[in-house]
């Protein structure tokens, strides 16, 4: 159960970094769109990607909380 908590926490941290990278990519893509290099489709695509990454982060955060709860239950802590 302890290893599951550690693994869930690491996955959550990775998902958070992926989300941050996606947001910085969106800023870059918006800048390129403003310059006329890219089309609005690229912006919409990246916004959809950020939505997916946010969902992945929320799910990993939930998995981490469940793993912690299971560990506490296993060792008898409320």
Rounded to the nearest angstrom, the distance between the terminal CA atoms is 15 Å
Major beta sheet, specifics?
none
Please state the structural category.
Answer: mainly alpha
Based on DSSP secondary structure assignment, what is the total number of beta strands?
0
- Rg, rounded, reads 18 Å
Mean pLDDT: 96
Assign a percent range to the helix content.
over 70%
Order of helices and strands: HH
Count of alpha and pi helical runs = 2
Content of β-strand: under 5%
The quaternary state of the protein chains shown equals single chain
Shape: rod-shaped
Runs in which pLDDT lies below 50 for 5 or more consecutive residues are: none
Characterize the structure shown.
With 78 residues, this protein is mainly α. Helices cover 88% and strands 0% of the residues. The protein is built from 2 helices and no strands. The mean pLDDT is 96.
């Amino acid at each position: 159960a302890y290893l599951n908590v550690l693994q869930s926490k690491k996955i959550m941290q990775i998902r958070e970094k992926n989300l941050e990278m996606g947001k910085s990519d969106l800023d870059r893509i918006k800048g390129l769109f403003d310059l006329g290099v890219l089309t609005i489709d690229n912006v919409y695509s990246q916004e959809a990607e950020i939505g997916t990454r946010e969902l992945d982060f929320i799910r990993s955060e939930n998995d981490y909380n469940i793993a912690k709860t299971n560990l506490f239950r296993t060792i008898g802590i409320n």
